[in-house]
Amino acid sequence: MVDERGEKVKSEARTTGFYDLRDALAQPDCAVCRLTAESADRFLENLLWESVNDPSSRRRIRQAGGFCHQHAWMLVRTSASLGVAIITRDVLSSGLKTIEGAAFQPASAWSLRRVRAALDSEQPAAATSELVARLEPQAVCPACAWVEKMESVYLGSLLDNLLGEDSLLAAYQSSDGLCLPHFRRALARVRREAVFEALVNAQQIIWERLIGHLSEFIRKSDHRFQGEPWGEERDAWLRAVAALAGARPDRER
Questions:
Q1: Which among 137, 134, 144, 142 has a CA at the least distance from the CA of 60?
Q2: How many CA atoms lie within 13 A of 177 on its CB side?
Q3: Where do the domains of the chain lie?
Q4: To 10 degrees, what angle do helices 31-46 and 16-24 make?
Q5: CA-to-CA distance for 253 and 237, rounded, in angstroms?
Q6: Element (H, E) at 86
Q7: Residues 6 or more apart in contact with residue 63 via CB below 8 angstroms
Q8: What is the pLDDT of residues 82-134, one digit of tens each?
Q9: What is the pTM of this model?
Q10: Which end of the chain is more exposed for a tag (fewer CB within 10 A), N or C?
């Protein structure tokens, strides 16, 4: 909306997400992958330095059984050993209480559960199923929950600002675009045909460009052309993996 103040109204409506996206689109890989990874890093940094002794935070971490594999290892950082020790001791102590006094509970020799387990080695053992269930996470990884929230913010901001004056469309077209998982999630949120067409056409341009780089990489890998210098197609194979699966978690940001 524009009134007598003109662009001021529009600029005030712009959220931090817009400027974060604009900057991230100028960097390699999917902008939303990059931004959510940075959000997870900030979340864990804040936890370690500000909230490690917060009762509600500790309770959520215990309910989740700690963090997922990716975010658990993201906790490991310089000078964070004390915070990690406090968190992991808390979760392990909870797990220890769960297994204390646990008993093997075999089914009777002729029970249906025992017959199924005997016929299918992949079938969970009935005798340990109760303890297994108690050890299952009762909540999602807290960092994953935060990432999901921020992912929604960034996808919404991208779609809201893809068209119009001073839009993100040009920056998007010249970027690596969204990875396939985030492209699907963005499409699922589109409600306007103009935004749909802009997003799909931009992604088509990006994928056509990447396919061209892959073709050139494959050609130059042929022994007949190995004397030719490498150009921007040199890392096309890595960019293609990121385009299909999302940015590599350990990629330098």
A1: 142
A2: 26
A3: 7-100+137-245, 101-136
A4: 120
A5: 19
A6: helix 81-99
A7: 137, 138, 139
A8: 999 999 999 999 999 999 988 888 766 666 666 666 666 676 777 888 888 88
A9: 0.82
A10: N
